[in-house]
Amino acid sequence: MSALLPDPASPLSRETAAQAFADLLDARTSEEAVADFLLALSHRGETSIEIAEAARALRERLIPITAPAGAIDVCGTGGDGQHTLNVSTAVSLVVAACGVPVAKHGNRAASSKAGAADTLESLGLDMDRAGAQAEATLAELGICFLFAGNHHPAMKRITPIRRRIGRRTIFNLMGPLANPARVTRQLIGIARPDYAPLYAEALAQLGSEAAFVVAGEEGLDEISGAGPTRVVSIGTAALPPRIAPEDAGLPRHPTIAIRGGDPAYNALALRRLLGGEAGGYRDAVLLNTAAALVLAGVAADLRAGATRAAQAIDAGAARDLLDRWIAF
Length: 328
Hints:
Elements: H1 14-25, H2 31-44, H3 48-59, E1 73-76, H4 87-97, E2 102-106, H5 116-123, H6 127-132, H7 134-140, E3 143-147, H8 148-151, H9 158-165, H10 170-174, E4 185-189, H11 196-205, E5 210-216, E6 229-235, E7 242-243, H12 263-274, H13 280-296, H14 302-314, H15 317-327
Parallel strand pairs: 1-4, 2-3, 4-5
Antiparallel strand pairs: 5-6, 6-7
Helix pairs in contact: 1-3, 2-9, 3-11, 4-13, 4-15, 5-12, 13-14
Binding site for Mg(2+) 1: 88, 222
Pathway: Amino-acid biosynthesis; L-tryptophan biosynthesis; L-tryptophan from chorismate: step 2/5
Domain Glycosyl transferase family 3 N-terminal: 11-61
């Protein structure tokens, strides 16, 4: 029998939200009802309880992997409409090259031209093999890609619905909260600055050890290289509530400097970046890597983190890591 989803015109209680997402993920509702529910939530604005319960429901249904101590994740929630290059994917490689294990959780594009999976695949990473070897590459290389399609069977029906909707929904928000490696340290970019405190509340409800929720003030789902970024710190790590590229000793670049394209375009840009090419993409990656290294406890501040990130790129460590990962 098909279950009825609640009317999301008003905020849902914890119990109602938990049941709604259980019904949705277990395919007890029609696809049309799911689309209407997601759009209504997005239009009204999701609450921290709804985000936390959606993530909790997805966590209960995922296929987990074991991660080494200190592993982190770096990702954006997507849906910012900026169609940028894959900053968090590049950041993951540089962070791992700095010695911090990264369990990168990601997917194909839902509302952009090239998601992390699309670009990594264009670089030569086999998604099926990367999924099967995730624990091994994380243990031996310090990085893995946890393709959402391999670890979230409950999302099989939801993914095409998201594509049809073509705009951000609560699934953009909950995805980073359901990492199959169960990391407790995360740098998460969110496209809506006004949502950063609310999103941090959801993270806290889910037991995060340390996290930075960041939002570029122009609506970018990462630390902006173009201007100020709002930061909400959780747990054992902290950054100022408002940061800018200068805090890491970096210049500003307009957002158009990191405008991306299709997977092949983004893959070539990432290759050039790892080869030492200067410019807005490099500086955006250095800035976000710096924050990730502060989060991981291996950099004292953003300037120190950016310096360490630059060394990992210029010494070829991040480029070599990518090559070893592809060949693994």
